[in-house]
Amino acid sequence: MRRYLAYTRQAFLAKSAFRFDNSMRIVDTCLKVFIFWCIYQALYGGRNEIDGITFEMVMTNFILSIGLGSAFYLDEGYLPYRINNGSIGTELLKPISFRGILLASDLGNICFCLLFEFVPAIIVAVLSVGMNKPHSVEAFAAFLISVLLGFLVLWTLNFIFQSLSFWLINIWSLQTIKNVFVNVLSGAMIPLWFMPDWMQGFIQFTPFSSIYFEPVKIYLGQQTGIDILVSFIRQGCWIVVLAVIGELIWRRGIRRLVIQGG
Question: pTM higher than 0.85 for the full model?
Answer without folding.
Answer: yes
